[in-house]
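User: Fold this; tokens only.

Assistant: Input:
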Amino acid sequence: MLPSQAQLIDMVPVEETAALSPNKRATRPSRFSWGIQLTPWIGCVLLICSGAALAADAKTLFAPCVACHGSRAEGNAALNAPAIAGQDVTYLERQLRNFRSERRGTHKSDSLGAQMRAAAAATLADDAAVAKVATYISTLPQTSRAAPGRGDLRNGNNLYHGKCGACHGGAAEGNPALKAPRLAGLDAAYIKRQFAHFRDGVRGTDPQDVPGRQMALMARTLPTERDLDDVIAFIHQQGRAK
């Protein structure tokens, strides 16, 4: 006895039954299911748009800095503005907050610091703005335009590794874990000026500036100006392309 058509249909898998029912319309996806499918795409679009907006906002915040530090934050020794591109973001944030909160740039001998303090207060409204511009600067490619310093590299190497390398790194690359900034790539005049500020009590005296106070103590251990020149010559050697 042959099975009837109804029995044959009952024997067909569910997926194929719809194909055997010519009068049955295909089920359309519900609006809810479309929403589920679109949600990841919407999230990606919003993430991309918000990221672009943040980048644009940070670049706008950096615009007042260009006049001195350069469009690529490469620095300008003629204007006493250091290269800051690619510097550690936490160090940049800390120094900008120090300027804004008058922990740096208040000493009568630090006229350049006073200019920076006024600029930070005028252009960076809060810590969120500080974080945005610091992040932007830290992502810029590092530069090495500093003219090579003159000095005794052997003496500079010995002094650097004996007094500076433990915190600032063997190649002056910095160490964020120790709150020590990169020194390689900074011009000689800036390094000498900041070293003198630490040594002479112009910088690193505020009780809340713990890393600055540590540096102030270390700055008093380097014997002579000639030794400082030798250390700077060694630092510059590390910051130049090999």
